[in-house]
Amino acid sequence: MNSVDKIFAPALDLDNRLADAVTWEHGGRLWPSSEQQTLTCCRVVDETHDIKSFEFRTADGLPVRFEPGQFMTVSATVNGQRVERCYTISSPPTRPFLVSITVKRVPGGTMSNWLHDNMKAGCELRAYGPSGTFTPTAAPATKSLYLSAGSGVTPLMSMTRASIDLGLNRDVIFIHSARTPADIVFREELARLAKLSPRLRVFFVCEGVGDESDWQGPVGRLSLQLLSQWAPDYLEREVFTCGPAGYMSAVRGLLAEGGHDPARYHQESFDITADVAPAPVAEKAETASGTFTVKLSRSSRTFTMSASDTVLSAAKKAGVAVASSCSQGVCGTCKTKLLEGSVDMKHNGGIREREVQKGFRLLCCSRPTSDLVLEL
Ligand SMILES: Cc1cc2nc3c(=O)[nH]c(=O)nc-3n(C[C@H](O)[C@H](O)[C@H](O)COP(=O)(O)OP(=O)(O)OC[C@H]3O[C@@H](n4cnc5c(N)ncnc54)[C@H](O)[C@@H]3O)c2cc1C
């Protein structure tokens, strides 16, 4: 521990506890991830040529409780089809009357283009409550290293904004990678926040200079040399990474090469098809046979399903409308209370242990091992 850390360590510990207590656990309306509500768009901000932020207030005007780094699942009818997608809340929980999402336009993408083309101030959007475990409270640390690329900046931005709002002066090194300087999301705000908080250090690396021929920063990709230069103590830092699958795989390679402890590495994948284990199939399920009955307590409906199918897929085949998004056990949108029976669930981080203890399961990655009653 260097002398600066010795001075700040007790304060930071208090900061962590304060932040956990004041910001995330108290205040604000509990908005479960299984519950939809209507949000009203207050503002649209052009962040870069293909990224916009959409700021929303709730219909009841009550503040929303969430943790920095969490996402919400938005739902819209696009070309006659109901579409659901997850977006990280880029605003901090310290401004709980507002939830904003920052969306990159994906070529050919359904929801991102619909939001960019249709969502304006005054428009409404349905969304499920906050969810996700990519939060600093999941891995409290006195020294962090935030690594992001492209729209992957959003969870780290919420964490940074929250920490600055509370005056925590946390020791954070934030390195963001972009294609060109014009593609750096939140460029001015991050630079301003770094001036406000001496222990927040922000660095940008761009693959090319684009139209900004006087770009002073490094050109290329994040390398071990750059990392060691900007964060010489990176081995001591809790690392939070978010970006495209290829970027995160490169970052993991760099950190492994440098000897960083993988237990102190945390990542959020936006790309549910590329960087997440395929929808886990229970070993038993491959040979599982038989048919089970599923009863839905709210709608009083009943259907039968094969033991080898996921509950979500069987429900959809039976014509039951279940909110879902990733189908990979990541996003948590299909979280449902299991009232009776048992399932074999193999998730990818989309549900917390305490939710499992309370009887919730993710239907997209759960296969029945008995007849079931679901709170649906
Ligand atoms: C936890 C989480 C948080 C996220 N947070 C953010 C965030 O903060 N900001 C953000 O911008 N994104 C975020 N995402 C990603 C977001 O959820 C969407 O995946 C993204 O916006 C693309 O959705 P889309 O509907 O526009 O694209 P989709 O319609 O899902 O298409 C995705 C890709 O598939 C291609 N495609 C679509 N249909 C076809 C077809 N028939 N044949 C071949 N290819 C096809 C498209 O061209 C496109 O390249 C997050 C994802 C997760 C899981």
From TrEMBL:
It holds the Pfam family FAD_binding_6. Coiled coil: none annotated. Residues 34-137 form the FAD-binding FR-type domain. Its cofactor is FAD. PROSITE patterns: 2FE2S_FER_1, 2FE2S_FER_2, FAD_FR. Residues 292-376 form the 2Fe-2S ferredoxin-type domain. This is Ferredoxin oxidoreductase. The lineage of its organism: Bacteria, Pseudomonadati, Pseudomonadota, Betaproteobacteria, Burkholderiales.
